[in-house]
Write a structure and sequence with these properties.
The protein is an alpha/beta fold. The chain has a single domain, classed as P-loop containing nucleotide triphosphate hydrolases (Rossmann fold). It has a 5-stranded parallel β-sheet, with helices on both faces. Helix 1 packs parallel to helix 8 and helix 5 crosses helix 7. It is globular.
Length: 193
């Protein structure tokens, strides 16, 4: 699936709460390349967004490197990433699974006061607001169908013919994908020695 010897630059995409960061982190570790979490670049202290120009500059510099795994859905930088990527891993899990995952994740983060990026933490507004700009849970609910349509169209767009799209539509798909990546990396290990 990954052809580890040839895959060096991977973009992991999918609706908030689908597991992008976990998959990207694990995949980067298996591949031995940096993990670039776009949310960590974009969200500055007090949830202030980085300026578009600075965001694009930082992401372009990271994408220019030889190997990496990014995670995130930012349309403003996706062309920069996909121009250099060889593979897109699309987490297209059913809405019910995404909603369960994003809700449980938010509960854990709020209860443990987990720092996300640059001192930012999720607050109770995730559970009290239906405004997608104030709640990642609401964002995931409203964005799921849009993301599915967006990435289905991207996968069939001839402009993206240089990319290998890997669509993972269940938790079992995700587990099999990561297991296969680990096996391929283990097989490639003697070749690198």
């Amino acid at each position: 699936m990954l052809r580890s010897a040839f895959v060096r630059r991977v973009s992991v995409v999918g609706t908030s709460g689908s597991g992008k960061s976990r998959v990207a982190r694990e995949l980067a570790a298996v591949m031995g390349v940096p993990h670039i979490e776009l949310d960590g670049i974009h969200h500055q202290p007090d949830w202030e967004p980085l300026s578009k120009e600075e965001f694009r500059r930082i992401v372009a510099a990271a994408a220019a490197e030889d190997g990496w795994v990014t995670d995130g859905n930012y349309g403003s930088v996706q062309p920069l990433i996909w121009a250099r990527a060889d593979t897109v891993v699309w987490l297209d899990l059913p809405k019910r699974i995404v909603m369960r995952q994003v809700t449980l994740r938010s509960l854990r983060r709020v209860a443990r006061r987990e720092e996300l990026w640059n001192g930012n933490r999720e607050g109770w507004r995730n559970f009290l607001s239906w405004n997608p700009e104030q709640s990642v849970i609401s964002w995931a609910w409203h964005q799921h169908a849009k993301d599915r349509a967006r990435y289905a169209a991207a996968a069939s767009d001839p402009a993206n013919a240089h990319l290998c799209f890997v669509r993972l539509s269940s938790r079992d798909d995700v587990s099999r994908f990561l297991d296969e990546a680990r096996r391929e990396a283990a097989r490639a290990e003697p070749d690198r020695a």
